[in-house]
Amino acid sequence: AQKVTQAQTEISVVEKEDVTLDCVYETRDTTYYLFWYKQPPSGELVFLIRRNSFDEQNEISGRYSWNFQKSTSSFNFTITASQVVDSAVYFCALSELDSGGSNYKLTFGKGTLLTVNP
Amino acid sequence: DGGITQSPKYLFRKEGQNVTLSCEQNLNHDAMYWYRQDPGQGLRLIYYSQIVNDFQKGDIAEGYSVSREKKESFPLTVTSAQKNPTAFYLCASSRVADLLGDTQYFGPGTRLTVL
Q1: To the nearest whole angstrom, how far is the Cα of B89 from the nearest Cα of chain A?
Q2: Is-cis flag, bond preceding B8, omega within 30?
Q3: Which of B42, B45, B102 sits opposite A109 (nearest CB)?
Q4: Do B98 and A104 touch (CB under 8 A)?
């Protein structure tokens, strides 16, 4: 079973549309962290946000916003007024203790390819 | 500028040859990681190192080897034992490895193609 599920494999929108990328995670830990990364066509993963499990406040950074809901184990990412430069693969990731209980592990979802058309 | 560099960006090798991918960071981070990415897939952890001269296997370590002789360098060798080596390889680092939630920062990646 996947620990981090990004059900949307690909999304295509027209510039200026709002778009939400879904992320559902699974963990037994009470303390964990969630991340979003952006991977543009160049390939490098760019860190966007980190959120700990005790902070359910939504966060806004410019056109980006994140909605964290522990009740549904979701950490969704919304881009408002999308632009062509937002075209990329977006990854959600979960940091938690591994099964051995001694090391922290970052588990990635399979990513969502967002294409913003002019 | 501080960051992570990987070289080369593209690498071609013949089947059966070992190849070493370079990863260097000047962020003074203790921990370094190697991930493999296949088309349409997330990242899978190959090896990680929390400190110089120490490293641990990740989820898919078979056919790979690493060394950590210097804090800033963590080269990955893809050996001939790796059955499907063609992939995109990403190196990352974080300030520490044993801190929950410590952010990993990534290099630009190396795309390896085995002919």
Answers
A1: 10
A2: yes
A3: B42
A4: yes
Residue B12 corresponds to which tokens in the numbers above?
Answer: 């071609």
User: Of the candidates B42, B56, B108, which has its C-beta nearest A44's C-beta?
Assistant: B108
* 8 Å CB contact of B105 and A91: no
The answer to whether residues A6 and A23 touch, using CB atoms and an 8 Å cutoff, is yes
* Residues B96, B84: Cα–Cα separation, whole Å: 31
Q: What is the pLDDT of residues A3-42, one digit of tens each?
A: 999 999 999 999 999 999 999 999 988 889 999 999 999 9
CA-to-CA dists, residue A42 to A76, B52, B69, B88, B109, angstroms: 24, 30, 29, 12, 9
Q: Does B5 touch chain A (CB under 8 A)?
A: no
Is A70 strand, coil or helix? helix
The tokens for A99 are 């099964």
pLDDT at B79 over 60: yes
| Locus of tokens 């990534």 | B106
Q: Region A53-77: what's the mean pLDDT?
A: 92
User: How much is the pLDDT for A97?
Assistant: 78
- The residue of chain A nearest to residue B107, with distances taken between CA atoms, is A44
